[in-house]
């Protein structure tokens, strides 16, 4: 029996490739001879698997990172990023990502914790000695 060596099924990879190439769900459905709703289900499951894998990696990387601060619910996302950079400088950390990259990282890795420009729930911020920042999102 062959072992699965990916977090995505072959079908999920196929759908994501078509979508990455700019095809609409209905176009992918026509190519694969399935319904548009089937493509939607496959794509949503693939994205969920990717998010879970990223969260697992973040948990692994934060094991040797220092807890740095907490971004509270309702905080403005952009002000929070500036606060992280300022506090890191005061503490002697050099963050490897610029503020725009941190916003992108936070939005892509924790979309459930960002509502437009406001933080939903709260976010723990961790920094490794090499300057990498990791976010852990908590929400109801």
From TrEMBL:
Q: Which residues cross the membrane?
A: none
At the top level, the lineage of the source is Archaea
Stretches assigned to coiled coil:
none
Which key words tag this protein in UniProt? DNA-binding
List the GO molecular function terms: DNA binding
Q: Which InterPro entries match?
A: Tfx_C (IPR029291), Tfx_DNA-bd_arc (IPR004645), Tfx_DNA-bd_sf_arc (IPR036657), Tscrpt_reg_LuxR_C (IPR000792)
Mind telling me which Gene3D superfamilies this protein's record contains? DNA-binding protein Tfx superfamily, archaea
Limits of the HTH luxR-type domain: 7-43
GO annotation, biological process: regulation of DNA-templated transcription
Q: Which segment of the chain is annotated as a signal peptide?
A: none
Using the record's annotation, list all stretches that form the DNA binding protein Tfx C-terminal domain. Answer: 53-135
Name listed for the protein in its UniProt record:
DNA-binding protein, Tfx family
From which organism does this entry originate?
A: Methanoregula formicica (strain DSM 22288 / NBRC 105244 / SMSP)
